[in-house]
Amino acid sequence: MTPADAQAKIVHLRAEVARHDERYHRQANPEISDFGYDALKRELAVLEEQFPQFATKDSPTQRVGDDRVQGFKEVAHRQKMLSLDNTYNEAELRAFHARLAKLLGTDDLRYTVEPKIDGLAVSLTYEEGKFVRAVTRGKGDRGDDVTANVLTIRTLPRELRGTAPKWVEIRGEIYLTAAEFERINAERAAAGEELYANPRNLAAGTIKQLDSAEVARRKLEIVLYSLGYCEPQVVDSQAELQKKLKAWGLPVVERYWTVRGIDEAWAAIGELDRLRHGFAFGTDGAVVKLSDFDRQREVGATDKAPRWAIAYKFKPDTARTRLRGITIQVGKTGILSPVAELDPVLLAGSTISRATLHNEDEIRRKDIRVGDLVEIEKAGEVIPAVLQSFPDERPAGAKEFDLFAAVGGHCPVCGGKIARVEVAAEDAEGVAWKCLNYDCSAQRAGRLGFFCSRRALAIDGVGGVMAAKLVELGHVKDPPDLYDVPLETLATLNLGTVEEPRVFGEKNATKIVAAREAARGLPLEKWLYALSVPDVGETTARELGRRHRSLAELAESSLLHAVLKKAELGAQREWEAPASRKNPAKSDEDKARRKELCARLDAEIAALDAGALAGVPADIGPAVAASALEFFASAPGRRLLAKLRKLGIDPQGTVATTGVFTGKILVITGTLPSLKRDEAEQKILAAGGKVSGSVSKKTSYVLAGEEAGSKLDKARELGVPVIDEAELRRMLG
């Protein structure tokens, strides 16, 4: 691999890992298994080691994932809350022991082996034995204050038993039991709502709810297992800590092992693997920790993980079964997704009869054919996936899968035209077949379900079954039509069959009516995301919502037109560059002309960056700009806007026309005492200002927090006024 190829691959892998981090840590909705995610990070780490010139401190291989979300106050950890390095094989586990033996000068090391709980990491603070605060890991040095939600956990004592230190941070994991997870999903199934994917995601999503009453209804549990800051020190080892946690009356792991040497540690891991399915909490591995605290301090930690601990991850559960057929599903964006229909097989405690095949290219790459014996995986309890086929056991005459032929060249739902298109990673990877009919009933149902989902407008009760029924009966064509469906109609809907009716009910219908009315007041960013505008994800919708006053303004956005103008100028500059390879200069005179033209183009681009596009993030790129403008100019887009106007729904953005920062450009650097960066940015935008990512002579103020770096130095060099959070609040009044 050439350095250029390696750099391109590293950039791609970092983007992929960042996308999966967002889905896992902030959205609690991963689309790949832990094993698949770890494989991506491993590939990235190997490339960064082979090509150190491209290694950076902000690479996901060098930092803790960030689980902070809007709506919670940030709190600093007294002692950093790191993540763990992990491995899936015995050789790497033994290499971990060998590194410690070399650092400490002895092979005689004591470890604890503990279950690796599949939940959400949290740090609890007790002062003088009394519970005062719960904070998520966040980005390691500071996290979200989720005290109100953690107080709903009935098994967590508000006061430690016996003698307690003056101040202690106790780390652990929040989880849902399998029984509680099944209870919640049974209720959702009865209400016709989509089911949650797995206990870990639901627990993580629950603890980040802003409504503590809803959190309490879900009956979260907690288990504690490690120590952060402690004053004064009360134990000298991890083994002693386990006993102390139990003596304090805290919920602890059901079983742990104190061992001597790596051979005993490996044997303990094997025993844990045999016992783990009987634990109350989900377990996806074992954590091996150097027990002695003095030795832990001696070997230290990296910015991301302690050197004295490692997680041994159990390999994902797999099973073999026969592929009996491939059916096609149509999603909210029209993407045709192949689904494997399998002989039922027991896997990870549940019977599996269907699994994802991702897309046609993936089927061909793995050479999967109907009739094959296949291996399926259910790692982390995400949607089962087909890993591989076994051609040696293939029945005679099995043919390669051809999606176009399988659906007769038309959408299997509406009969509309389909085409091969480049699609966003949210829908599929690379190229996929897409139904081009926006009004396809499958797309309508998908858009309605998404419109009502928790991350969109949070209209609980309208899951996949309910959405499909509303579309099927003609009550809903576009998502806003839900507002025109009377309570009586909702209450009498039959979500079952004629033979086995399942009436939705007035109680459930009343909840939908109340939730849809509450959604009227949600901000522009939520509505923009909920309307499924192509290429506009949650982060992009948030950025657009901060920079436009209304949907009507966004539909004609001068900012988006400026983004397209900049892209057009950039493409022209690349083509006209004196050293262009695609369009070589014909003479020295031509080179001189091009040099002059490129200087003018650079000036135009710089003017856009300093003016209309000041502070506009990379999330709002030309693809997003083109998609949003084209959508709202299209017949379906105009139809949506008209329906919202008729309903009197006019979601507002957070941008202000006038305010203390009108006409001002601010740059934010460092960590602020209480405001998250995006909260500070929102306040500035609401006061009429713009936020830029770089300091220049046109910068009005630099808002600086702790660990401010080169941007603060640049501000001082240019004489740009520097303010802190307190001054920002004073200026905002």
What does this structure look like?
This protein has 26 helices and 22 strands. The longest helix has 24 residues. Strand 15 and strand 16 form a beta hairpin. It has a 5-stranded mixed β-sheet with strand order 2-11-10-3-9. It has a 5-stranded antiparallel β-sheet with strand order 14-13-12-15-16. The chain folds into 6 domains: 52 residues, Helix Hairpins; 240 residues, 2-Layer Sandwich (D-amino Acid Aminotransferase, Chain A, domain 1), CATH 3.30.470; 118 residues, Beta Barrel (OB fold (Dihydrolipoamide Acetyltransferase, E2P)); 79 residues, DNA polymerase, domain 1 (Orthogonal Bundle); 122 residues, no CATH class; 68 residues, 3-Layer(aba) Sandwich (Rossmann fold), CATH 3.40.50.10190. The relative contact order is 0.07. The protein is α+β, with helices and mostly antiparallel strands and 733 residues long. Helix 1 packs antiparallel against helix 2.
Looking at the overall shape, the CATH architecture of the largest domain is 2-Layer Sandwich
- Provide the gyration radius in Å: 28 Å
What is the CATH homology-level superfamily of the largest domain?
A: DNA ligase/mRNA capping enzyme
Subunit organisation of the chains? single chain
CATH topology of the largest domain: D-amino Acid Aminotransferase, Chain A, domain 1
Helix tally equals: 26
Q: Main sheet?
A: 5 strands, mixed
Tally of structural domains? 6
**What percentage of the residues does DSSP assign to strands (E)?**
15-25%
Helix/strand-derived category reads alpha+beta
- Which stretches are low in confidence, meaning pLDDT under 50 for 5 or more residues running? 425-429
Give the overall shape.
globular
Major β-sheet strand ordering = 2-11-10-3-9
| Record field, number of beta strands | 22
Q: What proportion of the residues is helical, as a percent range?
A: 25-40%
The termini sit apart by 57 Å
Instruction: Summarize model confidence as the mean pLDDT.
Output: 89
